[in-house]
Amino acid sequence: MKKENQNKFYKALGSMVTQARNKEGMTVAGLAKATGEQYKTIASIEKGKPCSMHHLSWMTEVLNLDLTGLVIGQELTFRPTEETEDAITNINDLI
Question: Which of 45, 46, 56, 70 has its CA 20 to 30 A from that of 38?
Answer without folding.
Answer: 70
